[in-house]
Design a protein that fits this description.
alpha/beta, 34% helix, binds 6-O-phosphono-alpha-D-glucopyranose, 7-stranded antiparallel beta sheet, 23% strand, 27 strands, 8-stranded antiparallel beta sheet
Length: 614
């Protein structure tokens, strides 16, 4: 969950590292720090509790410089967020510094052992044991790489590290153990970069190498050398990342989340482009290389995902079952391995993950693989673990998503699920001829439909002004729009800290109806489809109990105006694609309410963009 950046080259490393950390703040923002080898060969460390701005203040007061540095932005797991626990951590002598992402599961035992050897600890973190371990091996005369290798054989748990040693000032040593989030080496000219996420270094290079589990990289300004932890050389391939650096910048928007909401007409166009073959009733999906007969013999799809991606999966169930007639189960990544799922050779475990590094989703994928399933994924980050371990994948074309609350990756995954359903439908012959043509062509409407919602984006400010002081919200949806009620509620609670619940509309009378009074707004997704009349009856039931109704209704539906207190509008969309359009007003509503409440939209408290610890 923490963010890591490293630099070695000919420039001053400090601005590069700080800029990388700025771009990684979505990873964690409890504290930040950096370590640099100063020209006189000592390691200088600057750390501060709080957001990156606090570290910048420290560096303004006590400047440092050098050509090789590591930086960290923390999401606390062990030890409260304070300066003492901020990374980088150094051992007792200050000979090395380390930044870490992940959890060292046996750190208590190691700490006890190291303390018994007389090593004094300065923090409560698990990370500090590694600093002491490495330092101990250096004292025995090992070089940095060997010391790191020795230290890492003694620790348990998934982690990613980058080390600096004052005695080897030309190199960074990076290592990855298990699924603790990515570690990427960026290749420049006489300068190399390291980062936990691509956007941190995208401005400098698009040529990247991804470290695999149990690999170690020695990175000097001339390039990286990769090895397994046991010392065999690895020939890693360099990937060219298709993302444009501008796409990872906030531009004129106030928040990344706002920018990403408004980018959706574009990201949906990119998702469809070259894949939906309009007028031909066909879909081409590049990375989805299925074995001969795999689609036809598919017996079940099990979707595993977390957070918003899991809600996208619930929508995907409707799409895949309706179009490809394949049974679909949807499971939280964090729950899947705690039952004994029934998986056959003809089951596909489909992971949906923006980052491709969510530890629970990855664990669910491993569980699926262990039981003999085929592994598919819908993933945004190229080179991420989920991307690498899947046998078939669809790369979302959302571009970098920086806002902690997912928006454009959510809609991109819905469109990808629809594309996948069409692809399978064609192979399984569950849709043919005119029907298939119509289903493919429907995708062509989406950018305009989403664009029409965004054209009215400013109107949400007024409604937010009326609702921002409410403390509870209920969201109701039915059928394929029930997951959109869940997502709408999640968006609101994530960024505005208002308690919000999503509920299947028909279940309201089995509990939530008891909560309804004039203080609790009920957001009802009542766009025109086959459950419209039933949704109107929910509106009536809420009104009959004095509730406040915010209805999401189809453009031109005037009948609802007299029934609801506030009406949000969405254009009429093809039923299976309506979630893609309907979620956008709910994103805008949540965003505007959070801004009105003065919340930090891009860095909501306690959350992290990429959850790489269990
Ligand atoms: C975190 C983020 C969510 C995201 C979820 C799954 O909780 O805050 O926005 O939906 O992780 O992330 P993934 O990268 O797997 O889609």
């Amino acid at each position: 969950m923490c963010g890591i950046v490293g630099y070695v080259g000919t420039r001053d490393a400090i601005p590069v590292v700080l800029d990388g950390l700025k771009r990684l703040e979505y990873r964690g923002y409890d504290s930040a720090g950096l370590a640099v080898i100063e020209r006189e060969g000592t390691i200088a460390v600057r750390r501060q509790a709080g957001k990156l701005e606090a570290l910048l203040d420290v560096i303004r007061r006590e400047p440092v410089s050098g050509n090789i540095a590591i930086g960290h932005t923390r999401w606390a797991t062990h030890g409260e967020p304070c300066q003492r626990n901020a990374h980088p951590h150094v051992g007792a002598t200050g000979a090395i510094a380390v930044v870490h992402n992940g959890i060292i599961e046996n750190f208590r035992a190691l700490r006890k052992l190291l303390k018994a050897q007389g090593r004094a600890f300065n923090s409560e973190t698990d990370t500090e044991v590694v600093a002491h371990l490495v330092e101990g091996f250096l004292e025995e005369g090992f070089d940095l790489v060997t010391a790191v290798r020795e230290a890492l054989t003694r620790i348990k748990g998934a982690s990613a590290f980058v080390f600096l040693s004052k005695d080897e000032p030309d190199r960074l040593v990076a290592a990855r153990l298990g699924n603790a989030g990515g570690l990427t080496v960026g290749i420049g000219e006489e300068e190399m970069f390291l980062a936990s996420d691509i956007p941190a270094i995208l401005e400098h290079t698009r040529d990247m190498i991804f470290l695999e589990d149990r690999q170690l990289a020695i990175v000097t300004r001339d390039g990286p050398e990769l090895f397994t932890l046991s010392g065999e050389k690895v020939n890693a391939s360099v990937h060219s990342i298709p993302w444009d650096p501008v796409s990872a910048a906030k531009g004129t928007y106030r928040h990344f989340m706002q920018k990403e909401i408004y980018e959706q007409a574009r990201s949906i166009t990119d998702t469809i482009r070259g894949r939906a073959q309009f007028g031909r009733g066909r879909v081409r999906l590049e990375g989805l290389r299925l074995a001969r007969g795999e689609a036809e013999s598919l017996e079940k799809v099990v979707i595993v995902a977390c957070g918003s991606a899991a809600y996208a999966g619930l929508v995907g169930k409707f799409m895949l079952e309706a179009l490809a007639r394949v049974p679909v189960e949807v499971d939280y990544g964090s729950e899947f391995r705690y039952r004994d799922p029934i998986i056959s050779r003809n089951t596909a475990v489909l992971a949906i993950t923006q980052s491709g590094e969510t530890v629970d989703t990855l664990a669910a994928m491993e569980e699926g693989r262990g039981k003999g399933a085929r592994l598919w994924s819908i993933v945004n980050v190229m080179g991420s673990q989920a991307h690498r371990i899947s046998e078939a994948h669809i790369l979302m074309q959302a571009g970098p998503e920086i806002g902690v609350a997912s928006t454009k990756a959510f809609t991109a995954s819905l469109v990808d699920l629809y594309l996948l359903a069409l692809y399978l439908a064609e192979k399984r012959k569950t849709l043919e001829g005119e029907q298939l043509h119509r289903a493919v062509d429907a995708l062509g409407l989406l950018p305009d439909l989403v664009g029409r919602v965004l054209d009215h984006g400013d109107e949400y400010t007024q409604l937010a002004h009326r609702l921002y002081e409410r403390e509870h919200f209920l969201y109701l949806g039915r059928g394929i729009n029930y997951p959109i009620a869940l997502e709408g509620a999640l968006k609101l609670k994530e960024i505005s800290y208002i308690h919000a619940e999503g509920y299947p509309a028909g279940e309201m009378k089995h509990g939530p109806i008891a909560l309804i009074d004039e203080a609790m707004p009920v957001v009802v997704i009542a766009t025109q489809d086959h459950v419209y009349d039933k949704m109107i009856s929910q509106v009536e039931q809420v009104k009959a109990r004095g509730g406040v109704v915010v209805a999401l209704a189809t453009e031109g539906d005037e009948a609802i105006t007299g029934k609801a207190d506030h009406v949000l509008r969405a254009p009429q969309a093809p039923p299976l694609l309506s979630p893609v359009v309907n979620v956008v007003p709910l994103q805008l509503l949540a965003y505007r309410i959070a801004v009105r409440r003065g919340c930090d939209v891009d860095q909501p408290r306690n959350l992290a963009k990429s959850v790489t610890v269990e």
